[in-house]
Structure formats: structure tokens, C-alpha cells
Design a protein that fits this description.
The chain has helices spanning 12-19, 24-43, 81-84, 86-90, 94-97, 102-116. It is an all-alpha fold. It has one domain (21-116). Helix 2 (24-43) crosses helix 6. The radius of gyration is 17 Å and the shape is globular. It starts with 11 loop residues before the first helix and ends with a helix.
């Protein structure tokens, strides 16, 4: 793979910042959150879907579509999609979560991701 000219001396994080890109970790999280958005907007209309459960709360802080964090005994399960995405989803701002379309969600998510991880 060829390096972009003039960036050989920069560290990985500095190269990403210079090019306006997210790290691999943030790109994976972005994909997970987009999949969560799609699941919640479509699957919650159907009864009986149980991958992610909405938290029943009357708190007004944060977004209005918080997810319930499950409790589990083994460390193995914390790598599951349904577990690793909940904490990040619940920290998203209301402006990002309450949009009707994926394209709008993506642009607002990109703004929120710069401060999220």
C-alpha cells in the first residue's frame, strides 16, 4: 500500500485527523450505530422482536429512545452486538436519534462521533 506523500512522518492518529477520517474503532462503531438505527426504525414496528429492548423510563435527559442494558454473567457476551452498542446509543444526543431517515442520522452521527469515544 502506498503512503500519501508528505505524511510518512506522522503518527496514525495525526494522519487520520489530517485526512478527516475516523479510526477503525470509530468506523466499526458508526456501522453498529447505523445498523441499530435501522433496526429500531423498522423492527420496533413489529411485535415480538427482541434483539434490543427499549428502556422504560420517564427521565428527560439525553435521547428519548434509550435502550436497556442487559445483565449477563459471562464476559463472553459483552462482545455481542446487542450489548456493545447500547452504551454508545444511549449517549447519542436527541437530535441524532429522533430523525426519520438514515441519511440525516448519518450526518448527525458523524458530528456526535467526534465527541463520543
Amino acid at each position: 500500500m502506498k503512503m500519501i506523500g508528505g505524511m510518512e512522518h506522522l503518527f496514525y492518529e495525526d494522519r487520520l485527523r489530517e485526512l478527516g477520517l475516523f479510526s477503525l474503532e470509530k468506523r466499526r462503531l458508526r456501522g453498529d450505530l447505523m445498523a441499530t438505527f435501522q433496526y429500531l426504525k423498522v423492527a420496533y414496528r413489529k411485535a415480538g422482536e427482541g434483539l434490543l429492548t427499549r428502556a422504560c423510563s420517564d427521565r428527560t435527559r439525553g435521547n428519548g429512545f434509550k435502550l436497556e442494558e442487559g445483565r449477563f454473567r459471562s464476559d463472553l457476551r459483552k462482545k455481542f452486538f446487542s450489548v456493545r452498542v447500547v452504551r454508545h446509543w444511549n449517549r447519542l444526543p436527541r437530535e441524532a436519534v429522533d430523525v426519520p431517515f438514515l441519511e440525516v442520522f448519518k450526518t448527525r452521527l458523524d458530528g456526535a462521533l467526534s465527541n463520543l469515544v
